[in-house]
Amino acid sequence: MMSEERHRLHWITAVIELVKTLKEAILPLIVIVVANGLGREKTGNFWLDNISVFIFGLFIVFTAVAGLIKWKRFVYWFEDGELRIEHGLFVKKKRYIPFERIQSLDYTEGIFHRPFGLVKVKVETAGGSGKDQAEAELTAVTRAEADRVSREIADAKRMKRMPSAEAAETTGTEAEGVPPEVPEADGAPARTVFRMENRDIVFLSAISGRIGLIFSGMAVLMSQFSDILPYELIFDELAAFVKFGVLIIAAAVLAVLLVGWVISVVWTFLSFYGFQVAFDGDDLFISRGLLEKKRITVPLNRIQAVRMSENPFQKLFGYRSVKVHSAGGGEESGAVISLFPLVKRDRVNALLGELFPELDLDAELARTPGRSRPYFYRIDFVWMIPVIGLASWFLFPYGLLTLLIVPAVILLGMWQHRSGGWAISGRQLTVRWRGFALQTVYVFRRRIQSMEERQTVFQKRKDVATVNVSFKSGTGASVAPVRHIDRADAERLMDWYDPRDRTGREAALEKGRAVHE
Amino acid sequence: MRKEPANRISGKGLTVWRIHGVFYTLMVLVPAIAAIVLAYIFDGPVWIYIVSAAVPVLTGYLLIGLFPKIRWQRWRYEVRETEIELQHGLFIVKRTLVPMVRVQHVDTSQGPILRKYGLAGITVSTAATTHEIPALQMEEADDLRSRISGLARVAEDDV
Lengths: 517, 159
Prior knowledge:
Strand content of chain A: 25-35%
CATH architecture of the largest domain in chain B: Roll
Structural class of chain A: alpha+beta
Shape of chain B: elongated
Radius of gyration of chain A: 28 Å
Strand order of the largest sheet of chain A: 7-6-5-11-10-9-8
Strand order of the largest sheet of chain B: 1-2-3-4
Distance between the termini of chain A: 36 Å
Number of domains of chain B: 2
Structural class of chain B: alpha+beta
CATH class of the largest domain in chain B: Mainly Beta
Number of domains of chain A: 4
Largest interface: A-B, 46 and 34 residues
Number of strands of chain A: 21
Number of strands of chain B: 7
Number of helices of chain A: 16
Number of helices of chain B: 4
Oligomer: heterodimer
């Protein structure tokens, strides 16, 4: 029988908890300290003068004790086919997670884990759309222990599945969007299907959008410090600075941009270092990271849709990126997961074909009709006209430059119009559209949660319509739009989705199954 | 050409929407009256009177008169054995198709105004999306809810 021995986490848990809390609290703390400590005259009272230091110290002690308690009181064990966790000092919390609800275990190795050979294990469950879903985290256990947990769960699941496979087949109403599980080829070793070269990771870092994140981070930091920065001094310096001329200012701005960019490159490089995807027939294992190693598990049957995107930079260098939409609760292996962050265009189909053999990647796309081109930019005049009007009126004559957004928007619209397309191949729908990057979504009919055909008054005049395809992504929905296509084609799409209109073999098949039940 | 869904929502739904419209109009009316009073006291320009009179009138016409009517006329639904089809929308006509196999649960809900008129709304949830039929007779809503959940339970998937 299963071991009912209570297990503890590694003591480093206490440290990790402490650091985590401190990290979250560091900015407000700094503000408190600065507000209290600086810019105030000494009262002579020792306690009053150093109050911020005491607050700070008290906070650290409190946090440290809380971390210790959390570690001390946290136990987990296996019993009756469940992972059971108990924690808490005053309020004892128990969480029992049945093995069959556990979708995957994600491993993270942070810098505190590395010296001791530990991992953080995150237990992902097939939680539907609720916040109350069972989910658990083992902050620090040894690698061997983690593997034992995963083996124990896998074994228990297999035992359970054998007799009940039939039952799963007949109750296949897809309670969570999961199809009845197919008996798997047990114990097949995971084999690496995709590995990113360092060169590609550097390129990814160079063009990734994280630079914006860094700048907003800098801005937040600046705003936090705004109280102590001597603004008058800066303005004086700035005035002197201006005299140096525009060139130097431009150089300074460039330098700041460059530094931000370098930080972002390094950051991205560190977090994507050694990116690889392994596959064992049922699950995808995605691991990455240099300082903090992460490994997430994505069960194939949780994947709702495959999304390929190509932004203009990537196109220029012959790259694409592929993400998958997965159903589920957690942030790590739920929602949108980067499968191939960057992959050569000529390799992508072969790679995807290996993971998803049933996917039709070369379907001939039907194009958006020519008469619907204006719809891609006409709506934008609603905001462009007031913006241009106001800017030109108040900022004359430079405001007139805003007129330039008109051709830009129109060109983008025409580009979007040219890029759009859709295709039905059997039970699969392919939708391609462009925001700025080109997106292609491959989704099977059974993964589509609902479809909506919509038509504005203007669209009606030219007999075009838009179809929105909703599928599950994480705990919410993601939408693939088939924009401004021929009305008849929109209806064809709806007919394809409509279960009532399934023809011939499929209908007979469904009927047969219904009778069988 | 796909046929329109067969059923309309309750006629009282139109009344409820008009009542909502009255509330919104009142919210516009109060500042408008305030503006007129202030303009009178401080001897404001004439256009303030005109705008303050025109805006509530227009709002009232649109939100009490025109919009609820169009919305109501547009609203159609049909619950068939294998799917639910909805049609609604004011400026944009939306036709939504929800297969029974995707339905996870059905709720009925009722605000104070709906209750006064013996109405209830139905919310159909899939794993990712939710869809609402806003105003049905209460018994009808209850029937429909049990019918949908019954159909959803037996619906077969095409894998």
